[in-house]
Design brief:
Layout (H helix, E strand, L loop, with lengths): L2 H24 L9 E7 L3 E3 L2 E3 L3 E8 L3 H32 L5 H17 L4 H63 L6 H17 L2 E5 L5 E5 L3 E5 L2 E2 L1 E6 L7 E6 L5 E4 L7 H36 L14 E2 L4 E4 L9 E5 L4 E6 L4 E6 L16 E3 L2 E5 L11 E4 L9 E3 L9 E3 L3 H4 L5 E7 L2 E6 L4 E6 L3 H9 L7 E5 L8 E5 L4 H4 L1 E2 L13 E5 L8 E2 L3 E2 L12 E6 L4 E5 L8 E2 L7 E6 L2 E6 L7 E6 L8 H8 L16 H9 L6 H41 L3 H35 L2
Antiparallel strand pairs: 1-4, 2-3, 5-6, 6-7, 7-8, 9-10, 10-11, 12-27, 13-26, 14-25, 15-16, 15-19, 17-18, 18-21, 19-20, 22-23, 22-26, 23-24, 28-36, 29-35, 30-35, 31-32, 31-36, 32-33, 34-35
Helix pairs in contact: 1-13, 2-4, 2-5, 2-6, 2-12, 3-4, 3-10, 4-5, 4-6, 6-12
Amino acid sequence: MSIFSIGVGGLNAAQSGLYTTSHNISNASTAGFTRQQIVQTTNTPMFTGSGFIGQGTNVQTVQRVYNKFLTGQVLNAQAGASEMDAYLTQLNQINNLLGDSTAGLAPALSDFFKGVQDVAANPSNIPARQSMLSMGQALVARFQGLDARISEIRDGVNQQITTEAVTINALAQQLGNMNQQIIAAQAAGMGQPANDLLDQRDTIIANLNKEIKVQVVEQSDGTMSAFIGSGQPLVVGTQVYSIAPVQAQDDPEKISLAMTTPQGAKIYLQDSVLSGGTLGGLISFRNESLDVAENALGRVALGLANSFNDLHTLGQDLNGSPGKAFFNLPTPEVKANAKNVSSATVVSAAIIDSDYRVDFDGANYNITRVPANPSLPVIPPSATLPVVVDGVHIQLSTTSGAPNAGDVFLVRPGNPASSRVIPESDNTGAAVLESSASNMQAMGTSDYRLDYTAAGQFRLTRLSDNAFWMGNGGSEQAALDDLATQVQTGVSLSFSGTAATVGDSFLIRPTRTAARNLGLAISDPTEIAAGMAFRTSATLANKGTAKIDAGAVLDNSYLPLPATGVTLTFNAALNQFAVAGAAPAVSNIAYNPATASSTTISFNGLSFTISGTPKDGDSFTLKPNSNGVSDNRTAQLLGGLQVANSLSATAYDVNSVSSTTLAFSSSATVSFQGAYAQLISSVGNKAREVTVTGEAQQALVDQSENARQSLSGVNLDEEAANLMRYQQAYQASAKMLDIANKMFDEILALGR
C-alpha cells in the first residue's frame, strides 16, 4: 500500500460523502425520505519495525439515520389519529341529524301532543280529531325518516368498509412486492442496505397503518411482515394475505371482513380485532354510536307506542266503543346466525308491556294479563310468591302479612314504585305486593346474543358490555324461562322447533327496527278514544256532603257495566259502603269519614275517589257512559304523557340482591322528550370525546414525528457544512496525490 493508494482511498471516501450529501439535499422535500450517511472505517494497518502504519480509509456502507422505536411511536400515534378522524366524520352526521331543530324529533313530538291537547279541549270536534291523526301520521313519518337516514349512514359505512378492504389489499400487495425487490436488491449488492427502497417500504407501511393499525416485524432476510388485530397475518415476507368484505353471519345489514389465505381458506374477522386506522374508526363508530343511536331512537318510538296504546285502549271512542290500539306496535328483531346447524330452530322475542291481575283463591295466586292476550300462553297458578311473569317480578313485601281468599291485586309495572300494585278495596287480608318496573322501563339500548351452549342451556350476552347470564332447564324453553328470572331485558323469549343444536346463535334486537316499523293503527277520527266507558254520579236525594270524582278505568276487562249500573250505598253504623250490581260481586268497602276525609276505591278495574261526609243511606252510582261525546278524561291522560316520566334513564339487571332491590324501587325517570334529549346529549358528548381524543392523538403524531425528523430528517444547514467538509477532504486527498507525484518525480530525477 503506497501513499498513492491512501490518497485514492481518501478521494473515494470524500467523493462518496459528496454523493450522499447531495442525495440528502436533493431529497430534503421528498415525503418519507430518511437522511443517509456514509460509514467510514480505516484500512488494515501495516506492521513495521516502527509499529503499525495506517493504510488510509474506505467506505464500508451508506446507511439510513433511522430509529425503529421512533418510527413505531409515529405509527401508533398515526393509527389512533386516523381512527378518531374517521369516527368523528361519521359521528357528526348523527349529531347534526338528531340535533336539527327542524328535522329532528322534538318538533314532531310537540306538534303531536298539541293535537292531543286540542282533542282534550274539544273532544267532540271532528276537525280537532282529524288534526290529531294528521299530527300522529307526521310523527310516525318523522320517526321513519330519522331511521331511514340512519340506515343510509349505515349503508355508507358498509360501503366505506368495502372500499377500505380494497385499499388495504392494494397496500399489502405493494408491501409484499417491495419486500421482494429489497431481497433482490440487497442480494445483488452483497448485503448492502437498499436505503431508498427501505424508505419506500416505510412509506407503504405508514399508509397501510393509516387504514388499519399494523404491527410490523423485521425478518432475518430483511423483509418486513405486517400483522393486524390480535396477530392475524396480512403480509409475511413476500406472501400476501387479503381481506374481503362479507355479509356478517349474525347480521345481514352489516358488512364484516374475512381474511383469505394464499391457499384460499376464509377466516372471519371479529370486529373487536379490527382496531386503529380509518377502518377501525368506521367499525368503532358503527358499533359504539350508530347502533346505539338507532336503538335509542327505536326505544323512544316503542315507549311512546306502548304508553299511548295502554291508555288509549282503556278509553271510549266517539261511537261509544272501547278504544283500539292507536299505534301499530313494532316487534323485536331476531336474527339466526348463518352458521346455525338447526334451520328448524326458531327463537322469537316479544315486548310484553302488560298489567296483571293477581287473584288469591286461598291456595294459589292466579295471575292473568290485563288486557287478556290470547296469543300468549296461560300463566300457571303459583302457590307462593315471588313469581316472574313475562320478565316482571312480583313478590310479597318484606313487611307483608298474609292474603285471604278472594283478595285481588292489580299490578301495573309501569307505575311509580309506590303505586305499582293496587289492591281492590274489598280485600280482607294483610298482604302487600310489590312489582319490578315494566319491560319498557327496564329496556336499554343494547342488543343481545343468545347462544345454545349445551343441552337445555342458553347463554344470554348483553353486547354493550359483554355481561352474560346462563339459563338452565330440562328443555330449551325452560332454559329461556330461567334466564327471565335472572335478568329483565325488556323482551320475552320463546322457543319453537324440533330441537336446538349446540352452537346455534341468535342476535336479538329489542328496539333496532321500532322507529322504522312504527305506524298508525287507526284512520277514522271517531275512533280516537278521548272518553271513558263509565261515569259516576251522586244520588240527588243524598243528605251528606260526600262527593265522588269522575273516576278512571284501570282495567277494562269487566266493561261495559250493566245498564242498571253499580250502586254504592253508605251504612253509617258500620262505616262502609255496600256495593250492588257489580260483576264480579264486590264485598262491603270500609269508609270512615271521621278518620279520612277521602278515600280512593278500586274494584273490577275501576278507580274513583269519594270525599266528604256521607249520611246513612246516601248512594253513588257507576253507569255506562252512553253518549259521552264530551268526555275528555282519556284525552287528558294522553296529553299528560308529553311530560310524564315513561322511560328509565338506564336499564338495570335483576341478577343479585342489590340489583333486585334497585329493580323494585326504580321508576321511570325521563319523558319521551327527555329520552330523545338524552340521546342527543349522549351523541354530542361522544362527539366531544372523540374530538378531544383526536386532538390529543394528533398532538402525539406531531411530537413523535418531530422527534423522528430531528434524527432522520434532512437539515440543509448541516448538509451544507458536510458539503464543505467533504470538499475539503477531497481537496486534501488530491493534494496528497500531488505531493506523492512530486516525490516520485524527485526520486526518478536522482537516477538521471
